[in-house]
Write a structure and sequence with these properties.
Structural class: alpha+beta
Shape: flat
Helix content: 55-70%
Distance between the termini: 46 Å
Number of strands: 9
Number of helices: 17
Order of helices and strands: HEHHHEEHHHHHHHHHHHHEHEEEEE
Radius of gyration: 38 Å
Strand content: 5-15%
């Protein structure tokens, strides 16, 4: 009554008593949907269950597990029907034998089939879904160009076909991205172990291999196509919606389908056409996951899964590093390892007592040891527990330096972004941070080759942080002088549009 989701009765077969039998029955009915459109008879279902169990554990055990009272098939099917998992009906009797045997037939309900399909997909490898997203940006860009060409020519059936492929590819791409994000979040949570590192490495490599290379190449092309679709207005989506509907469809149905198609354009815009689009955000997430991947791998390699003496090694290294000279450092090393070098003591030893030098070890009197030495001998040989040197001040100083560098870089990016869309000849002198960023932008523009010098260049900087649209000067002889702290730069009077990637 309050609008909250209620219980899902069809999911009871996963948690109730005899859940293993219920799930096996539903799994067999789910596989039968691919080859039988009229359901599965009771006898056929029992044979299929027995064959499935026999393939797993053998024929004798399969017969025992499918016979009453272990498996009461009629009671299980009646309960599944009560939960809304299966439909049940009676097959038509054609012979006298049909009146004696059970003529029940079963078919999964649509909701139960969807739920079990999700369970089956959850247990499978997601590589198939990731493969479906292969070359997704390239496919979307090509289909959008075909749709725009068909829309200009008023060929709306061809435009609708191209748009349907765009929506399917976009859905596969979003599903693959969702899997990558969930896997990265799971692998980065908690203490790193071998399984998490393996999962994170496989996710990063799957992203790079399947999809990562196409983002930089096709994002600008898809953005331009989305802009052209917006310029055509809502009439385009009405014509596309009419193609896939009945000629006698009502106006409300046409408007609803047109709204659905227009929502697909909003999804494309969110993925590729905004300043902080989802494609670039996913790429940054994968890029940021590389550092924890390497850090976790190094941690596993250094420990090997066992407790190490890292604290003692750090203490010895700190003591050697703080030594005043080489002799003091060598003395610290010998104390820590017990590897003393030979030393020759000068002088003559004192004469031993009379007869002491000729006394045998076995005949010599015992040496008295006081009680204090006997009590403390065990504790003095062990030494204090090892402690890691306190490097908190050094970490705080490094953290403050990193935050300062990030603030300076963020300030330089904002100042350089404020100059976007203006010719270089109008730029005021650059600061140190702006000059460093400008060198990367100018290098990327100069390295881009076009067939004609008057063409607009669209490139991405080497660090992948900026998408640059460089408009050439009105006259190729026009030049600009950009002043930097390290000197002046003379180049063509380009007009640069800077877009954060």
């Amino acid at each position: 009554m309050a609008g909250f989701p209620g219980r899902v009765e069809i999911a009871n077969y996963l948690t109730q008593e005899h859940s293993a039998q219920y799930r096996l029955i539903v799994d067999v009915l789910f596989d039968a949907q691919e080859v039988a459109l009229t359901g599965v008879g009771r006898d056929e279902l029992l044979i299929a269950l027995r064959e499935r169990i026999e393939a797993a554990i053998g024929g004798l055990q399969a017969r025992e597990l499918t016979m009453p009272p272990v498996l009461d098939l009629d009671a299980r099917m009646h309960q599944l029907e009560q939960w809304g998992v299966v439909h049940s009906w009676q097959d038509r009797a054609r012979t006298e034998a049909d009146f004696v045997r059970s003529r029940d037939r079963y078919q999964l309900t649509p909701d139960a089939a969807d739920l079990h399909g999700w369970l089956r997909q959850r247990g499978d490898d997601h590589s198939a879904m990731a493969s479906a997203a292969a070359f997704a940006p390239a496919v979307i860009a090509d289909r959008l160009d075909e749709m725009l060409a068909a829309a200009v020519a008023k060929d709306y059936p061809a435009a609708a076909q191209a748009w349907s492929q765009v929506r399917t590819t976009l859905k596969n791409m979003a599903d693959a991205a969702r899997i990558w994000q969930s896997r990265m979040a799971s692998a980065l949570a908690g203490t790193p172990d071998e399984d998490k590192i393996t999962q994170l490495r496989d996710t990063v490599m799957s992203y790079i291999t399947v999809w990562g290379a196409g983002i930089d190449t096709y994002t600008a092309r898809i953005r331009n196509a989305v802009q052209r679709l917006d310029d055509m207005g809502p009439e385009l989506w009405r014509e596309v919606a009419v193609v896939g509907l009945d000629p006698e469809a009502r106006e409300e149905t046409i408007s609803t389908m047109a709204h659905v198609h227009h929502a697909g354009v909003d999804t494309l815009r969110a993925w590729f056409a905004t300043t902080d689009n989802q494609a670039a955000r996913l790429r940054r997430q994968v890029r940021d996951a590389v550092t924890p991947l390497l850090r976790g791998t190094r941690a596993l390699l250094s420990t090997g899964g066992y407790i190490t003496r890292q604290a003692e090694l750090f203490r010895v290294a700190a003591a050697i590093d703080s030594a005043t000279d080489d002799q003091d450092a060598w003395r610290v090393w010998c104390q820590a390892t017990g590897q003393w070098s030979a030393r020759h003591l000068p002088g003559e030893p004192a004469d031993p007592p009379v007869g002491a030098a000729r006394t045998s070890f076995w005949e010599a009197p015992p040496v008295p040891i006081d009680a204090v030495a006997r009590q403390r001998s065990r504790s003095t040989s062990g030494g204090p527990p090892a402690q890691v040197p306190n490097r908190r001040n050094a970490r705080d100083q490094a953290r403050r330096l990193l935050e300062k560098q990030r603030r300076e870089q963020s300030t330089a990016e904002r100042e350089l972004l404020a100059r976007s869309g203006t010719p270089l000849s109008t730029w005021t002198p650059l600061g140190a941070g702006e000059a460093e960023l400008f060198w990367g932008v100018l290098t990327a523009v100069a390295s881009a080759r076009t067939a004609n010098h008057a063409d607009v260049r669209r490139v991405t900087t080497a660090d992948g942080r900026w998408l640059v649209v460089a408009h050439p000067p009105a006259r190729l002889t026009d030049s600009a002088r950009v002043c930097t702290p390290g000197g002046d730069i003379v180049c063509g009077d380009w007009t640069l549009e800077l877009i954060p990637a």
